[in-house]
Amino acid sequence: MQITKLNGVQKAAVLLIALGSDLSSRVLKQNFQEVEIEQVTQEISNMVKIPAEVKNAVLEEFMEFRKARDYLIHGGLNYAKDMLEKAVGHQKAAQIISKLTIEMRAVPFSSLRKTDPKQLINFIREEHPQTIALILAHLTPDQASAILASLPQEMQTDIAKRVALIDRFSTDVLRDVELVLEQKLSSVAQQQQAQASVGGVQSLVDILNRVGRSAEKVILEGLEQDDPALAEEVKRRMFVFEDLTLLPDNFIQRVLREVNSKDLALAMRGANEEVNTRIYKNMSKRAAEMLKEEIEFMGPVRLKEVEQAQQKIVSVIRKLDESGEIIISRGGEDVVLV
User: Fold this and answer.
1) pLDDT at 212 (0 to 100)
2) In this structure, how many other beta carbons lie within 10 angstroms of the beta carbon of residue 300?
3) Range among 69-73, 88-92, 224-228 with highest mean pLDDT value
C-alpha cells in the first residue's frame, strides 16, 4: 500500500482508523453525509493492515491541508501561499493550494462561509423564502442559526420547513443564486460543477440546535401545526441517546429515575463504552451491579429492539424538557435542572 495510489475515500479511511473509534465516530457524525459514511466505512472494512509509513503520510497530508485551509479562509489566497511556502517550500505549497482551490470551487457558496451573518442578513432578508432556505442550507449551522433567528417570526417556520425539505438543486439554479449574491456582496462566488445535495432534516436540526430556545420553540410549534410528521422527526433527531455524555450528572440521575430498567438494559446493549460508563457512574453501586448482570444474561437481542429502547429513553428526556422539569441547552444556553 502506497499513499500515492490511494484515492480520497481511501485516505479518509486511513485517517479515521488512525484517529481511533471514539474520535472517528464524532468526525463521521459531524462532517460526513450518509452516502459518504457508507463509502468510507466500506473502505475501512477492506483494510486489513496499514503500514506505519502510509498512516503517518496520510496524517501529515491531512495536517498540511488543514493548515492551508485555515490560511486560505482567514487570510486569503496570497496569505495562504506565503505561509505555506515558509512552512513546506514553494513547490509543495503550490500543489496544496492547487488542490484546495479545486476542492473549494466544488462547494456552493463557499465564499459566504467567511462572511459575518449580520452582513448576510441585510442582503438576503428580502429574498424569496425558498432562496433564503437554499442559502441557509449551504452555510455553517452557526451562520444559518444566527440568520434564521434574526428573521421575522412569521417567516421562520416557513423557511425552516423549506430547509428540511430541500433535496437537490441543479447547477443552473445554484449559479443564478450565487450570481445575485455575488453582485450584492461584491465577493467571488464559486461555481459548482455538478448537482449539489443540500438541506434535509438534519440540516434543519443542526440549525435549530444553535438558534436559541425561544426561536426553536416558535419554529417547532409552527411545524407541528403545518407538518406534524416533520416536526416529530426533527424533535427525534435533536437529542439522541449518545448525547447523554454531554449532560451533567444530576441531569442523568433525574432521567434514570423515570426509565424502566429493562429498557435501560436494552439501550445500553447498543451503546458505546463512554455512554455506559456515565450511566453506571450515576447509579448506586448495587443498582449498577444488578444492571450489569441483567445485560450479561440478556442473550442475543435484535438491533431494532435496542433502537426502540434508546428512543424510549430519549422520549422521557423530551417529556421532562417539555414539562419544564428540566431544560435542555439550546443555542449555547446552560442546562438547568429544576
Assistant:
1) 64
2) 5
3) 224-228
Quote the cell numbers at residue 96. 496544496
Q: Which three cell numbers stand for residue 195?
A: 448537482
253-274 pLDDT, tens digit per residue, is: 999 999 999 999 999 988 888 9
Amino acid at 77: L
CA–CA gap between residue 168 and residue 171 (Å, rounded): 10
**Interatomic CA distance for residues 229 and 236, integer angstroms:** 11
- The position carrying cell 479545486 is 102
Residue 198 grid coordinates: 443540500
Residue 242, number of CB atoms within 10 A of its CB: 16
Query: Following DSSP, what letter does each residue of 230-259 receive, concatenated?
Result: HHHHHHHHHS-GGGGGGS-HHHHHHHHTTS
Report DSSP state, residue 84: H
Angle between helices 261-269 and 303-323 (to 10 degrees): 120
β partners of residue 168: 197
Cell of 216: 426553536
* Structure confidence at residue 105 (pLDDT): 46
Do residues 326 and 251 make contact, with C-beta atoms less than 8 angstroms apart? Answer: yes
pTM of the model: 0.41
Mean pLDDT, the chain, integer: 76
Type and span of the H or E element at 337: strand 336-337
What gap in Å lies between CA 44 and CA 65, rounded to an integer?
22
Who has greater pLDDT, 281 or 44?
281
Considering the chain, what percentage of its residues have pLDDT values greater than 90?
Answer: 14
